[in-house]
Amino acid sequence: MGNTELKKTNQSWAPVRANSVANQIVMQVREALFSGKFQPGDSLGSEKDLAAQFDVSRITVRDALRTLETMGIVEIRVGAGGGARIAESNLDYFSDALAVQFILAGVTKSEILDMQVAIEGTGAELAALHRSSENLEELAELLDDAETVIDSPAEFTEAGQRFHLAVVEASGNRALIAQFRALRYVVWPQNAQRAKREIAENAQKIHHQLYNLIKAQNGNAARKLMIDHLFSIRAVSFSGTAEDAANGMICC
Amino acid sequence: MGNTELKKTNQSWAPVRANSVANQIVMQVREALFSGKFQPGDSLGSEKDLAAQFDVSRITVRDALRTLETMGIVEIRVGAGGGARIAESNLDYFSDALAVQFILAGVTKSEILDMQVAIEGTGAELAALHRSSENLEELAELLDDAETVIDSPAEFTEAGQRFHLAVVEASGNRALIAQFRALRYVVWPQNAQRAKREIAENAQKIHHQLYNLIKAQNGNAARKLMIDHLFSIRAVSFSGTAEDAANGMICC
DNA sequence: TTTAAAAAATGATATAACAATTAGAACACT
DNA sequence: AGTGTTCTAATTGTTATATCATTTTTTAAA
Predict the structure, then answer these.
(1) Would you tell me how many other CB atoms lie within 10 Å of the CB of residue A43?
(2) What CATH number does the domain containing A53 carry?
(3) Which of B48, B71, B86 is the last residue of a domain?
(4) What domain range is B75 assigned to?
């Protein structure tokens, strides 16, 4: 296999074992993707094809494919007509990578909540600026849905979370959406799903205000309200009082 | 809430191939990590050990290890006393995953810049609130460094980028830092590294103001200044005039 | 104590084989 | 013509057995 020299960046990539043949194949495919040579859906051929193409054994190709697959760069199908092809974007891979690194790094709840403020604050602001009529319809529907389950803490929490997602989605910014989904993946399991009706009603009220600000395209106010909203959740989440603990976090 | 039909998205993790033996091993290790059973540094044993432990062939273990390695969950060392162990947090894996998904999803420059505003704006705000004296020293040093290379566009751009990184690092929020580094990885290659001295001087001036606001713990003003700064960069970056294109983007 | 050679452990690669899965073609039967 | 079924070929998943290359540890010598 010729072209094995990797580009400038990425000194970080494990100095050890970096030049195994399998990794060279990974790098070549990766660079080809980054340089626009590949589009999602493009076929790379079967393991046998690739083994012949790179003049290596099937196992070496397998190692490379397993890495590329985990990176989310290729998807592999078994059976006739199968093989490896360039994958569609799948943010789950990314969310998962983020969650893993947060755990390994021991990132705290407080840090993640600050991150949430950054993402959702900007999300709300951009949602107000860019929302489509379809976005508004969806947000209104989600508000109605939440209303019907306001007495069921777990369901209301879930409905509220969907509302928050819809707000970020209304921003039209896929980078923000990706980050939000990643954070959600990290944060949600920690959320207590119990809350008093009083708290639920307050969350619902704020969500309505948020909807109105987004509808009115008032980005700055939407951002501020979202941030206040998140901070109040944080306050509940971090206050250690017995009652608050019992109330739990609502919606997010 | 009745509405159980999930939205279009998220058939996600390929139903096919999900229960291969190799994937089961991956899942087991993953779950163990998420449940706190493993800490960075813990040894998993060699390929041979794991093959015996799971009663599978070495190649199957290899497949699983390659996946876990790419996920950043384990690191593998050769030689006596080597084998697989739980990795330390390495945000490069995550940054890379993000970059890959942005490319596959075709995320635009505009979307990424909005994301930058969210991250760096919050980063500057939190830096002002949480900065240590060491942070201030480093920021001051970086300002001096940039001053000495103000006539060398490429070097000044790099120095400016280091300043921006230091600001986010001063926030003390590892989640933000991770996101910033990920974005940097995506954005930097696009940055033109040429600029007129006039532009460099302006950037340097703003960086000084930013430093002062962080020193004064004025979070709100720091955030606003950072955002203005980024928007002015965006303006240059997106204006298509010949002169601006020649001037390029400065610092970030 | 330092250095260098030897040995052991381990991953990297290759070859061969079989099982399980899938797509598509061929075929039979309405 | 259309529909369902069966066969076939292609392809990944898995196992087994070797051999090679690299790294680390151990041992011996200077």
Answers:
(1) 14
(2) 1.10.10.10
(3) B86
(4) 21-86
What are B199's two structure tokens? 């532009």
Same domain as B204, residue B111: yes
Query: Based on the domain organization, do B131 and B62 belong to the same domain?
Result: no
Give the mutation candidate from A85, A115, A152, A162 for the B interface (greatest B CB count, under 10 A): A115
Contact yes or no for A66 and B71 at CB 8 A: no
Whether residue B242 lies within 8 A of chain A, CB to CB, comes out as no
Nucleotide nearest to A50 (CA to C1'): D11
Question: Per-10-residue mean pLDDT for chain B, 252 residues long?
Answer: 27 48 88 88 88 87 88 87 86 81 86 92 97 97 94 87 96 91 70 66 94 97 95 69 41 46
In terms of domains, do A120 and A46 share one? no
Same domain as B98, residue B79: no
Residue-by-residue DSSP string for B143-184:
HHHHHHTTT-HHHHHHHHHHHHHHHHHHTT-HHHHHHHHHHH
pTM over 0.85? The answer is: no
A162 and A77 in one domain?
A: no
Q: What letter represents residue A33's amino acid?
A: L
Lowest mean pLDDT among A10-24, A55-69, A155-169: A10-24
Instruction: Tell me which residue of A57, A44, A51, A40 sits closest to A83, measured CA to CA.
Output: A44
Given CB atoms, is A39 within the 8 Å cutoff of chain B? no
Nucleotide nearest to B60 (CA to C1'): D14
